[in-house]
Design brief:
The structure is a single chain. By secondary structure, this protein is α+β, with helices and mostly antiparallel strands. The chain has one domain. The protein is 38% helix and 12% strand. It has a two-stranded parallel sheet with strand order 1-2. The radius of gyration is 17 Å and the shape is globular. The relative contact order is 0.14. Keywords: Glycoprotein, Secreted, Selenocysteine, Signal. This is SEPP1 protein.
Length: 156
């Protein structure tokens, strides 16, 4: 959860603002006892949600598992569902998925879009293109093998 805070700050510094982050704590007894530690490991900008023992499990309802990242666009549509190992924050999958969901403009003009989003997203695309160009310049036998995260196009 502290890495999520680091990612939140990084993205905000890059201009990606008004993103909602929610950590859903497991409803089991052990997790409920550790809730305060989880809450203390993130800033007030990240909501930590404690499930009630009597409610339907959020992860079951969302067809997810502990440690998954569900990334929604500004209209509330699920864009990415990242499970292990793609949900490890030491990899770039979560960060890149958030950037894509933030910058994609699937529905045309949107009242939820930030005013300066075009410049921010152009900058992100430019940096991604530069990274891709660097990788393409490396000899094929020196490239590391990357897998793409699983992308969902669910409309809710």
């Amino acid at each position: 959860s502290s890495r999520l805070e680091d990612l939140r700050v990084k993205l905000e510094n890059e201009g990606l603002i008004n993103i909602s982050y929610v950590v859903v704590n497991h409803q089991g007894t052990y997790s409920r006892k550790k809730f305060h530690l989880l809450k203390e490991s993130v800033s007030d900008y990240i909501t930590v949600y404690q499930q009630d023992e009597q409610q339907a499990d959020v992860w079951t309802t969302l067809n997810g598992n502990k440690d998954d990242f569900l990334i929604y666009d500004r209209c509330g549509r699920l864009v990415y569902h990242l499970g292990l190992p793609y949900s490890f924050l030491s990899f770039q999958y979560v960060e890149e998925s958030i950037k894509i969901a933030y910058c994609e403009n699937k529905c045309g003009n949107c009242s939820y879009t930030e005013p300066d989003i075009d410049g921010i997203c152009e900058n992100i695309t430019k940096k991604a293109d530069e990274k891709l160009a660097e990788i393409e310049l490396e000899p094929a036998d020196q490239r590391s093998h990357h897998h793409s995260p699983h992308r969902h196009r669910h409309h809710h």
